[in-house]
């Protein structure tokens, strides 16, 4: 983490989302740029396999505020219900992630 939180809130999990089905070639900057459509991304954790260094296909995205988490979750929940997602800038999430449907 480049800019650690001064004192992490007790409810840190409420500032974070879990994203899966990421493409093999994704990197921190792509995830950060994609999810910044919902708010300021504070941190991206992108686990890799120790043996070969490839991305495991999931990430944890931490936002600066709970409203950003709610916006991202709402966008993906609408997409799962067949409403096509939230549109607008949030559409960059699918494009930047290799056109895959991401899961939260």
Descriptive account of the structure:
This protein has 3 helices and 3 strands. The protein is α+β, with helices and mostly antiparallel strands and 104 residues long. A 3-stranded antiparallel sheet has the order 1-3-2. The longest helix is centred in the last third of the chain and has 15 residues, at 66-80. It is globular.
Return the structural class.
Answer: alpha+beta
Sum up the overall morphology in one term. globular
Q: Regions with pLDDT < 50 over 5+ consecutive residues?
A: none
Strand content: 15-25%
Question: Widest sheet: strand order?
Answer: 1-3-2
Key descriptive features of the protein:
single chain; 104 residues; alpha+beta; three-stranded antiparallel sheet; 3 helices; 15% strand
List the helices and strands and how they pair.
Layout: E1 16-20, H1 28-35, E2 41-45, E3 58-63, H2 66-80, H3 92-96
Antiparallel strand pairs: 1-3, 2-3
Q: What's a concise summary of this model?
A:
The protein is an alpha+beta fold and 104 residues long.
